[in-house]
Write a structure and sequence with these properties.
The chain is built from 6 helices and 6 strands, in the order E-H-H-E-H-H-E-H-E-E-E-H. By secondary structure, the chain is an alpha/beta fold.
Length: 139
C-alpha cells in the first residue's frame, strides 16, 4: 500500500476550503477523508484563527470547533528551522517552515505573488490546489 501524500495547505487555501466550495473545498474534504496527510503548525493555526476572526467574524466557539476538527485530521508540527525567504509577506515563511518540519511531499498555495513563483522549496514542489488534486488523483 502506498503511503499517503503529506502536504501543507497555506492559510488562504484552508480558509477557502473551509468556507467555500471549489477545489480548496475538495482538498479539505480529501484531508477529512484521509486521502492525504494534512500537515499544519501552531503558527498556521494561529494565522487561521486570526483570519477567521478578523475577516469572517468567527466566534470563539466556531474557531475552537474548527481548530479541533483540523487537529483531528492533521499532523501538527512544531518547526525548529526558521526561514526568511519571503520578505514581502513573512507569514508565508511559516508555511515553508511547516513543510520542512513535516517533511511534506507538497506545499499547496493559491498565492501567485509569493509562494507559487518559487515553484519549489528545498525540493518540495509548490502547487496550486488544482495541481495538487490532480497529483492525488494520479496516485
Amino acid at each position: 500500500m502506498k503511503s499517503l501524500i503529506r502536504a501543507v495547505l497555506d492559510t488562504n487555501v484552508l480558509v477557502s476550503g473551509l468556507l467555500f466550495s471549489g477545489v480548496p473545498g475538495e482538498l479539505v474534504e480529501a484531508a477529512w477523508e484521509q486521502s492525504f496527510r494534512l500537515t499544519l503548525s501552531s503558527e498556521i493555526l494561529a494565522e487561521l484563527r486570526r483570519v477567521l476572526r478578523e475577516k469572517f467574524s468567527f466566534s470563539d466557539q466556531a474557531m475552537y470547533q474548527t481548530e479541533v476538527a483540523l487537529r483531528r485530521i492533521s499532523t501538527v508540527v512544531e518547526p525548529v528551522e526558521r526561514v526568511s525567504i519571503i520578505q514581502d509577506k513573512p507569514s508565508d515563511n511559516r508555511i515553508l517552515e511547516a513543510a520542512i518540519a513535516g517533511r511534506v511531499d507538497a506545499i499547496v498555495s493559491g498565492d501567485r505573488m509569493h509562494l507559487l513563483p518559487l515553484r519549489s522549496f528545498q525540493g518540495i514542489p509548490i502547487l496550486t490546489p488544482r495541481q495538487f488534486l490532480e497529483k492525488m488523483e494520479k496516485r
